[in-house]
Amino acid sequence: MSEKPGNQTPNTPDVSETELRRMKVDELRQEAREEHIAGASGMRKEELVKEVAKARQEDHDGGPKEGSGSGSGKSTGSGNGKAGNGKEGRDKPGNQTPNTPDVSETELRSMKVDELRKEAREEHIAGVSGLRKEELVKEVAKARQESAGDSRDEDAGGDAEDLGAGPDGGKIRYGDESSKSLKYSQEITSTEEEPEREGRSLATTHHEVIRQWAEERGGVPATVDGTEHGDHLGVLRIDFRDRDANLREVSWEEWFKTFDDRRLNFIYQEERTDGNQSNFFRLENPEREDA
Question: In which domain, by residue range, is 40 found?
Answer without folding.
Answer: 1-72
